[in-house]
Amino acid sequence: MTKSIEKELWGMPCAVDHKNKRVYLKCESAITAMGVGALVEKYYPGYKGHLVSLNRLSEIRDNLETVQ
Q: CA-CA distance, 7 to 4, in Å (whole number)?
C-alpha cells in the first residue's frame, strides 16, 4: 500500500501520500505552521509538508481512499 490516510499528526488533521512523499496538514496556529517542516521531517523523513484547508484535506482523503 503506497498511500494511507492518517487521522492526526500532533493533534493536527492530516493525510499522508506515501507514493509522492507528501504529508497534508490542517493547522490552526501560525506558530505551529512555522514548525510543520521540522515536524514532518521528524516523523516522515524525506517527505514534504503541505498546509491545506479542511475542505481540501477532505478532498485529498477521498482521493487517497479511492486509489487504495
A: 10
The answer to whether the beta carbons of residues 27 and 51 sit under 8 Å apart is yes
The x, y and z cell numbers of residue 44, run together, are 516522515
Task: Kindly report the pTM of this predicted structure.
Answer: 0.84
Q: Is there a contact between 18 and 5 (Cβ–Cβ < 8 Å)?
A: no
How far is Cα 1 from Cα 11, in angstroms, rounded to an integer?
A: 24
pLDDT tens per residue, range 9-32? 888 899 999 999 999 999 999 998
C-alpha of 36 from chain center: 10
Strand locations in 10-67, DSSP E? 12-17, 22-25, 48-51
What are the pLDDT digits (tens) for 30-57?
A: 998 999 999 999 999 999 999 999 999 9
